[in-house]
């Protein structure tokens, strides 16, 4: 299939930015880009428009960068929380996906598109997470998200388990330190005997 050379009239996610000359398959152009006036076929006349479009794009990029940096600052200052249904062991019924995070952010008047949320897999465990957002003009923001169970009894049980795990970790660290000190003492005694 022959790809068409196109001049983008708007930013198209995954294809290019306004004023760029790109190549796309004819079906993509005919069914999506052209009906929505996002691109036109690049010929001698449209190439003259390219410089004007690129200047407009640069101005818009500056505005978008300022807006994105403002949103990023606000996002880093706010801790987001969501309550979910869980079983007694703390495993969620379902998961928290990028769509859920976008909905949570839009409730706080922070408009973010779903493709901006960089989440490898949906979250399936209760806890605290740091989620990276890639905003317009390559501005990144890190959001703190706490996922907690809806039921208070389950919440208390999970907190107890977390405390028990911390105590076990501390005991294990102490035990490993004791083993290291005794082995160091034995090594020094062996070197003195020699």
Overview of this protein structure:
- With 194 residues, the protein is an alpha+beta fold.
- The chain has two domains: 4-63, Ribosomal protein L9, N-terminal domain (Ribosomal Protein L9, domain 1); 78-153, Ribosomal protein L9, C-terminal domain (Ribosomal Protein L9, domain 2), CATH 3.10.430.100.
- 48% of the residues lie in helices and 24% in strands.
- The protein has a four-stranded mixed sheet with strand order 4-9-8-6.
- It starts with a strand and ends with a helix.
- 14% of the residues are buried.
Task: Supply database-style keywords.
194 residues; 4 helices; 48% helix; three-stranded antiparallel beta sheet; Ribosomal Protein L9, domain 2; alpha+beta
Question: Could you outline the blueprint of secondary structure elements for this entry?
Answer:
Elements (H helix, E strand, L loop, with lengths): L3 E5 L12 E4 L1 H8 L5 E3 L2 H34 L1 E6 L6 E6 L1 H10 L9 E2 L4 E3 L1 E8 L5 E10 L2 H42 L1
Parallel strand pairs: 4-9
Antiparallel strand pairs: 1-2, 1-3, 5-7, 6-8, 8-9
Strand content: 15-25%
Which consecutive residue ranges, at least 5 long each, have pLDDT under 50?
none
Instruction: Tell me the helix content.
Output: 40-55%
What value does the Rg take, in angstroms? 27 Å
Distance between the termini: 81 Å
Query: How many DSSP H or I helices?
Result: 4
Q: How are the strands ordered across the major sheet? A: 4-9-8-6
Tell me, what's the shape?
elongated
CATH class of the largest domain: Alpha Beta
Average pLDDT value? Answer: 83
CATH superfamily of the largest domain: Ribosomal protein L9, C-terminal domain
Structural class: alpha+beta
The CATH architecture of the largest domain comes to: Roll
Quick one: biggest sheet? 4 strands, mixed
What string, H for helix and E for strand, traces the elements in order?
EEHEHEEHEEEEH
CATH topology of the largest domain: Ribosomal Protein L9, domain 2
Per DSSP E runs of 2 or more residues, the count of β-strands stands at 9
Please indicate the count of domains.
2
């Amino acid at each position: 299939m022959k790809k068409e050379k196109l001049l983008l009239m708007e930013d198209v996610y995954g294809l290019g930015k306004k004023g760029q000359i790109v190549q796309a398959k004819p079906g993509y152009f005919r069914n999506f880009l052209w009906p929505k006036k996002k691109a036109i076929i690049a010929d001698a006349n449209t190439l003259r428009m390219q410089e004007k479009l690129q200047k407009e794009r640069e101005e818009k990029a500056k505005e978008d960068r300022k807006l994105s940096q403002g949103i990023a600052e606000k996002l880093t200052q706010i801790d987001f929380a969501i309550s979910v249904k869980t079983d007694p062991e703390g495993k969620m019924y379902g998961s928290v996906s990028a769509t859920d995070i976008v909905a949570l952010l839009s409730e706080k008047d922070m408009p973010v598109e779903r493709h901006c949320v960089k989440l490898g897999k949906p979250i399936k465990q209760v806890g605290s997470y740091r989620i990276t957002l890639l905003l317009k003009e390559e501005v990144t923001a890190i959001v703190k998200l706490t996922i907690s169970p809806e039921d208070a009894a389950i919440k208390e049980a999970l907190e107890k388990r977390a405390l028990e795990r911390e105590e076990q970790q501390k005991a294990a660290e102490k035990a490993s330190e004791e083993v290291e000190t005794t082995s160091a003492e034995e090594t020094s005694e062996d070197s003195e005997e020699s």
